[in-house]
Amino acid sequence: MRYLIEHETVLEYPQTVREHHIELRLAPRSDGHQRVLSCVIETEPAAELASYTDYFGNRVDYFCVIQPHSRLVTRLRSEVETLKENPFDFEAVPPAEECEWLAKAVRHMPSWNDFVLHRSLLTPTAMKLAEAVSCAFPRQDRERPLLDALMDLLAWVPTVLEYRSGTTEVHGALTAAVLQGSGVCQDFAHLFITVARSWGIPARYVMGYLDPGVSEAGAAMATHAWAEALVPGAGWVGFDATHNLLANDHYVAVAVGRDSYDAAPQRGSFKGESAGEQPSVTVMMQEQ
Asked: What residue numbers bound the domain in which 68 lies?
């Protein structure tokens, strides 16, 4: 699939601010599952952008606006070709060999230990989460393929959380969402990750875009979040617990991390008297 993506964020302040430093994780990833054909980022006021690759392999564009201003706009326009048509198209590893496969993979990429060991308010310990969950966790049967257990987990998450827009805060604690029984796509992804890590499986958070033809009818277009788990024989496989789907070529990945903090599309700091209003975000994703 080939997609044109446009993403605009508008920040407005009741009083002028200055020395505004911004980091953007908006440029889609370029890897074996997708190719970035073009990517342009513009700002208003105009600023000179620089970029680097962060610890998790995400492209980060950064800039600063020194002069006083009361409005800041960032715009992304990118064309991406996605290649992962069938997420089940891989040579499976026998269940008896999966543990060794995972151990070798992590030895080869020691940084992936972060996706097993990391705990936060967004991805707490299984013991902490169990205090909020009223039903039993799904279990991993090592005599079955890991993918089967992860598919069971994918189906389990929506039995704990109901999707309700605006019911949780950005980067809000997962236990709060579980206690109220509702959340947004970030909470679904964090719940999947938390349980997968309790099994010792590397799992990471993904921020990106989902073809609007797949998402809920009438829903406003926005960034989407899902989880990825390391599956023997397949590598990183995306699990969208919000829609109970495996990620395929209808998904465009932008940034990955241990949780949503690592993959925030935009963050920054400035000098001024007011924090301003919540950002206004407009997203368009069009199949080419």
From this structure: 2-82+264-287
**Number of domains comprising the chain:** 2
Amino acid at residue number 213: G
Residue 271 sits in a domain whose CATH number is 2.60.40.2250
Q: What gap in Å lies between CA 191 and CA 227, rounded to an integer? A: 9
Q: Is residue 35 part of a domain?
A: yes
Same domain, 103 and 234: yes
- Does 45 sit behind a cis peptide bond, omega within 30 degrees of 0 on the bond before it? yes
Q: Is the distance from CB of 195 to CB of 217 less than 8 angstroms?
A: no
Least confident of 61-65, 122-126, 137-141, 232-236: 137-141
Three-state SS at 204:
strand
In-domain check, residue 88:
no
Same domain, 48 and 159: no
> What contacts 24+ positions apart, CB below 8 Å, involve 143-152?
143/95, 144/95, 145/92, 145/95, 145/98, 146/95, 146/98, 146/201, 146/231, 146/232, 147/92, 147/231, 147/234, 147/237, 149/199, 150/196, 150/201, 150/229, 150/231, 150/237, 150/239
Could you tell me the pLDDT band of residue 166, with boundaries at 50, 70 and 90?
confident
- The pTM score is 0.94
Q: Are residues 22 and 101 in the same domain?
A: no
